[in-house]
Amino acid sequence: MAMKLVNKIILANSLGIITIILISAYSYHEFNMLRAKLRFMEIADTLNATFLKIRLSEKNYFLYKDAASLHLLKAGIHESKKILDEMKPKIIVAVGKNNFLEFSNKLNRYADEIDKIGIHGQSIENTELKVRKAGRDLKSFSENMVKLERKNVNAIISEARNGLLYFFSLAVVVAIIGTYLFFSNMFRNLRRIERVTNSISKGNFKKIEEWKMPNNELGSVMRAINSMCDELQTRHEQIIQSRKLASIGILTAGVAHELGNPLNNISMTAQTFIEIYEGLSDEERLEYMETVLQECDRIKAIVRNLIDFSKPKDTEFKVCDINDVIKKTLRLVRNTLDVSGIKTELHLQENMPEVLIDDNKIQGVLVNLINNAVQAMSANGTLTIRTRWDITDDYITIEVEDTGKGIPQEFLSNIFDPFFSTKGTEGTGLGLSISYGIIKRHNGKIKVRSEVGIGTTFTIKLPRYIPKEDKDG
Known about the structure:
CATH architecture of the largest domain: 2-Layer Sandwich
CATH class of the largest domain: Alpha Beta
Structural class: alpha+beta
Radius of gyration: 52 Å
CATH topology of the largest domain: Heat Shock Protein 90
Number of domains: 2
Strand order of the largest sheet: 2-4-5-7-6
Number of helices: 12
Distance between the termini: 45 Å
Shape: rod-shaped
């Protein structure tokens, strides 16, 4: 079971806090020990200075038998014992209990030898030797202990430096490994979400595969995005259908006129057939019926084209000739162009490569562009449709050009935005946005160039169809 993001964050923070606590505890211990040893060295320096005075008083006493020197000697020993008693805890922390006891014993032994001075039965020479020996032992032990502690201080500083370097290196390694273990997958999922949302913003509603979804909060976000994709896809198809139905309203007048022509021909043919039936030969009667049949086929073709255009369908990609799709589209809008007094020019390159498209949806895009062109032009305007292909290019090009009023430059960057319209209340602002999404789902491109008072040209690029065997080859 995948770990929740909140648990990953808590665990990562906990590891970081534990690492900081370990580093802090280690540093605190080392610095405390360092401070204790430095404090001991201060105490030892004070004691050594006192010992120096004591030894000087000792020398004066034995040389001059000066009672004042003996008094100073005993006062110095008393002061040293007092310092040891007051600083006992700190000295023990710095040098250990055994060293403290030995230091204290040597001081007491020296004091005992001093106390024996002048006692009856003790020769002065023997007493002097013992006092001097005890004094030398005490001073030597103190100096050696100070030297040792100076070395220990340097060792602690070196160990602390190395220890901190080790802990910080460990912290960096833990951070790198922790980031990779805990967050690398999360970052991949975030990038996947970013790609999908960018794709949605461009009209491509491709969902995230279920097996790529982690069982955590990001997985819930991905499932919500997939649900949103389904809803957007449904609404997108509804909007496309609404736009088609709106386009049908524009086409109705032209289609009705086009249906009227063959119906009138059928009616006139039938009336004439009835009136002169008796005088017609069998061959002439067949010719009249063939005329009726041809006009009926014309009507069927018109109705079939209109139904194919208006009927909602799922995206069905198939290999098509783009020139045929354009011609089929023009048959739908031919009478709209005629009624509007628009001249149509076709420049379709021959031997164009085939394209893999949903011809119904591409037809819808073309109808939308043609209707926009018609609305932008007055009578006697010219609609030009071109196709071309460069043999070195993987895209075929379709251009829909009009001689209308054009689009101001400040609007061109927003022309494909949903609900953006240059028609005021007459437009929904969805037609070009939907067309943009359709072309993008075909892995194509659509762009516009326009000049006010000159006209507008929409350029569509669709990838040419490359058979699988050609790809493999």
